[in-house]
């Protein structure tokens, strides 16, 4: 897989303490990137960092606290990062919550839309000045196959008029994809070298799928791994999106196998719903209003 060198690049990976985020962080670190693991649970973050350092003792890996369900935490993280680092080559919007019981973020948003989409929208907006000042930087936003057939429930974004966990997960992942595409269009309109690319991991056996965890019977794990791909394969579309010299911005990367569920990274075709410009613009405007974050191109 042809790729740009990561040596000396500075990266942020949200949700880097497990699953696809940890696999991405490990690959970046072993290839010489400076990795900032942006995590909600700082202890789990340190444990994940120690795992990486054990195999790659010279890797530059830092842990910083970030709660994507809290706009104050997002702003504070961005301020601390910009005080500490003069550049940002790669922002990997990876963290996600999947199908929890109905809950709200600190700011009153439905948890999945609030964390998966609005949290990353706000984070990217706060970090845009640093991304813009770093030549050829990239924003990679992780979506999901669940975006297919999903809708944006503008009249019920907070779920108070009814909540179905999987529908709201699909909404958050459609929002991720529409955000990534709209961001790339705006970056190009303003003549910026920063690119925005979306990706999805296929169906990966990460901790989003809590299939009984360690206590699941072995035959069940065997069946799951036959149909799901391991986290290191699930991370390949993210790594490809972050490093491939062939990309121009605005692409959607996923596995190349049957149904895009497994395989090696390739350019995928998103659901036609993602090209609805009126919905995309409304989503952007609503996201700015809800988060109070505007993008200063």
TrEMBL record:
Pfam families documented for this protein: adh_short
Kindly state which keywords UniProt assigns to this record, in alphabetical order: Oxidoreductase
What is the protein's given name? NAD(P)-dependent dehydrogenase (Short-subunit alcohol dehydrogenase family)
Q: Which top-rank group of organisms is this from?
A: Bacteria
**UniProt-recorded Gene Ontology molecular function terms:** oxidoreductase activity
InterPro entries from the UniProt entry:
NAD(P)-bd_dom_sf, SDR_fam
PANTHER family xref list: PHOSPHATIDYLINOSITOL-GLYCAN BIOSYNTHESIS CLASS F PROTEIN (PTHR43157:SF31), PHOSPHATIDYLINOSITOL-GLYCAN BIOSYNTHESIS CLASS F PROTEIN-RELATED (PTHR43157)
